[in-house]
Amino acid sequence: MRFRLTLWYSLVLAVTLLAVEGGIYFFLRRSLEESARQTVVERGEKVAQATVSGPLGPRGEFAVLLPRMDVFTSPDLFIQAVDAFGAVVARSENLGRSSLPLTKGTKAAIRSGKAAMERITVNGEELFLYSRPMFPDVEGTGVIQVALSLKRQNEFLSRLRLLFLAGFLLAVLSASGLGAFLARQALLPIKRMTETAREIGMSGDLRRRVEYRGPQDELGELASTFNEMLSRLEAAHRRLESTLEGQKRFVADASHELRNPLAAIRLNLLSLLNRLHPRLEPEERELLASLTREAERLSRLVADLLTLARADAGLGLDLSPLDLHEVAREALEQSRILGEGLEMELLSSPGKWVLGNRDYLKQFLLILLDNAIKYTPRGGRVEVEVESGNGEVVVGVRDTGPGIPPEERERIFERFYRREEARPKPGAGLGLAIARWIADQHGGRLELESWPGQGSLFRLRLKALPVPAEARAS
Ligand code: ADP
């Protein structure tokens, strides 16, 4: 914008200057030419008036008597008289031995008796040549030639051109310099405001304000409008934050408070079921079992909600070195009871050390195993694989289930999102959201590869730790 302002400003100035200077120059040139023309015409007239003719010869014959040419000359003005045959009959002294050329105009003047004005160049010097018959309207008479050198006039004009050019350059350069400076000064507050706005955008710090010292003009108004907008944004953001904070705290508190009573209900239901089992009618037994399952489901949901509430509160995990092989083995053992009718296998060997949180990594694997078991039809296969290499430990849970179509591979990690096909199975859609959070907390990323109709593979890459000395010894 600064550049454009300066450019326009300089352009307008240049065009105006050019028009004014050009106008003055052409006007002066015309006036000088006009006055030169007048001079030669007047001189010709005077010479003609001083020329006499009549029976002036010694024997009374007709003769022409020319005046002394030098009376009419000046340093730049030359006069010469030629007869009807073009022979020079008189010339002013300042011509020396040379003579004015017999031009087309001169010849025409001899022939027609009419005066002619020409602009000619002799030896590189420009001249106005005026050829005037000695006796007007008489054809075939002698001619008086008056020539005025335009040398001084041309020199003056070329000096003027140079002066105008220098003035033009000086004016345009200094004006564009000044213009650039002024534009910079005028736009400085906008630049500062833009910088502040960018910083606010990057840091997200809505407490900051644009600094503006200056009059309450358009810029001042812009600055205060911008600051007012920031204040409103900040207030809205605060309100939103406190509402969110309240909601998170509510979820955390509610889950926490629900956890113990739910556990008690589940345990009591279980012991009731065990104790009364032989005495119950089949429908009563089924009712109690279903109640126990629901209580179980609720407990799990509440535990998941609590984990996510903790995640939202920005709670970090305590990490320490552990062997991922051990965690994978325990998780698989624990899941085996659920995986009835499935082939379940651990592809791993000890010594896969990483920095991690044992409980959460186990929860992570249990979530993935739970899904694999839940969604893979009986007769299928579920594998847990822990590999190391290239400074990494990769743990993966693979199944031969239905797979996940590409367009849903991102959505399934969202909270409460469940695929249509999964609806009949138990679950609340929180498992993968928790798994992803746990992966993030370990500085890794939960990756998914899936082949619809053939199965899925969930994988987590972690940085490998060297096997500790005591582990190597044992
Ligand atoms: P939930 O299992 O409780 O529905 P999750 O967050 O664990 O919730 O999973 C989200 C969705 O992703 C599931 O509803 C299911 O449709 C899909 N999904 C997860 N794991 C698998 C898997 N191993 N095979 C096929 N679909 C899966």
Question: How does this structure look, described?
Answer:
The protein is α+β, with helices and mostly antiparallel strands. The protein contains nine helices and 14 strands. Strands 4-3-7-6-5 form a five-stranded antiparallel beta sheet. A hairpin with a 5-residue loop joins strand 3 and strand 4. The longest helix has 59 residues. The protein is rod-shaped, with a radius of gyration of 55 Å. The site of adenosine-5'-diphosphate has 20 residues, from helix 7 and helix 8.
Helix-strand makeup class: alpha+beta
What sort of overall outline do the alpha carbons produce when their principal axes are compared? rod-shaped
Number of E-type strands: 14
Q: Uncertain runs with pLDDT below 50, 5 residues or more?
A: none
Keywords:
474 residues; alpha+beta; five-stranded antiparallel sheet; five-stranded mixed sheet; 9 helices; 14 strands; 52% helix; rod-shaped; binds adenosine-5'-diphosphate
List the helices and strands and how they pair.
Blueprint: H1 2-50, E1 52-54, E2 63-65, E3 77-82, E4 88-91, H2 104-112, E5 116-122, E6 125-133, E7 143-149, H3 151-203, H4 218-276, H5 282-312, E8 320-323, H6 324-336, E9 343-347, E10 353-356, H7 358-375, E11 381-389, E12 392-399, H8 431-441, E13 446-451, E14 455-463, H9 469-473
Parallel strand pairs: 9-11
Antiparallel strand pairs: 1-2, 3-4, 3-7, 5-6, 6-7, 8-10, 11-12, 12-14, 13-14
Bound molecules: adenosine-5'-diphosphate.
